[in-house]
Amino acid sequence: MLVVSNLCVSYGPVAAVKGISFEVDSGELVTIIGANGAGKTTTLNAIMGLVPIVSGNIVLKGNSLAGVPVENRAGMGLSFSPEGRRVFKSLSVIDNLRAGGCTLSRSDFDRRLGSVLEQFPVLRERREQDAGTLSGGEQQMLAIARALMVNPTCLILDEPSLGLAPKIVTKVFEIIAELRASGVTILLVEQNVKKSLAIADRAYVMELGMIVRSGPADELADDQFVHDSYLGTGSRESGNG
Ligand code: ATP
């Protein structure tokens, strides 16, 4: 579905992503985990075309994304829920979903809206409410729902659990697992290592712009390095899982 090879991204003199390669197969939930500043968001932004790449290849369903403008990538099946949710706060829930589905025909839009509101009943209840008045968890659901409006072949989620209360974090991970079970291919970036590994098929660990570990998620959950770095007491993630 998605193949990233030798990807390098820099911000001026700062090399943020240093030649990483990974892939996401159709129907898989793949997670990229790692500490602050590892280069996870930069990787996703490069896939979406939001930051220029220095070198490397990004291929979606056999088609290179080189030179494809950001606004055309959704039409190729990529959809993105960015870090910090970025819902349109002064617009209603329904208008946020309209924005997500603005490239659809009227009949496709109506069909997708029905399906998305069925998946997220709380959004149906709050459809006329301004997005800025929703709780953090509801805004996250809206951000995911907005990304789902185009019925993506590959859904990219950046830190969906960030800043949410523990109970809501659990709910968000349940929703992601349900999406995976329904057949959506998902690339998930997270700092919540424990919960991500619990729902993912495979995982990549990023540190300082490089992939330092990869494998089936259940094996990485038992990996000593991952445990010591991200899961154990005193790890970079303690208190966040
Ligand atoms: P976080 O979880 O904190 O978002 P991350 O793993 O997503 O971290 P990135 O946000 O991709 O990491 O950042 C990777 C590196 O690139 C960091 O050193 C960061 O300071 C740097 N960086 C990110 N965005 C910019 C920018 N716009 N200009 C300059 N440097 C940047």
Record the SSE blueprint:
Layout: E1 2-11, E2 14-24, E3 29-34, H1 40-48, E4 55-60, E5 63-64, H2 70-73, E6 78-81, H3 93-100, H4 106-119, H5 121-125, H6 136-148, E7 154-158, H7 166-181, E8 185-190, H8 193-199, E9 202-207, E10 210-216, H9 217-221, H10 224-231
Parallel strand pairs: 3-8, 3-9, 6-7, 7-8
Antiparallel strand pairs: 1-2, 1-4, 4-5, 9-10
Helix pairs in contact: 3-6
List of distinct ligands in this structure:
adenosine-5'-triphosphate
Number of domains: 1
Q: Per CATH, which architecture?
A: 3-Layer(aba) Sandwich
Rounded to an integer in angstroms, the radius of gyration calculated over CA atoms is 17 Å
Strand order of the largest sheet: 6-7-8-3-9-10
Shape: globular
How many β-strands, per DSSP?
A: 10
Number of helices: 10
Distance between the termini: 30 Å
Global structural class: alpha/beta
Could you characterize what this model shows?
This protein has 241 residues and is α/β, with parallel strands linked by helices. The protein has one domain (2-231): Rossmann fold, CATH 3.40.50. Helix content is 37%, strand content 26%. It has helices at 40-48, 70-73, 93-100, 106-119, 121-125, 136-148, 166-181, 193-199, 217-221, 224-231, and strands spanning 2-11, 14-24, 29-34, 55-60, 63-64, 78-81, 154-158, 185-190, 202-207, 210-216. Strand 9 and strand 10 (210-216) form a beta hairpin. Helix 3 runs parallel beside helix 6 (136-148). The longest helix has 16 residues, at 166-181. The chain is globular and about 45 Å long. The two termini are 30 Å apart. The model has no long low-confidence stretch (mean pLDDT 91). Bound molecules: adenosine-5'-triphosphate. Adenosine-5'-triphosphate is lined by residues 11, 14, 16, 34, 36-42, 191.
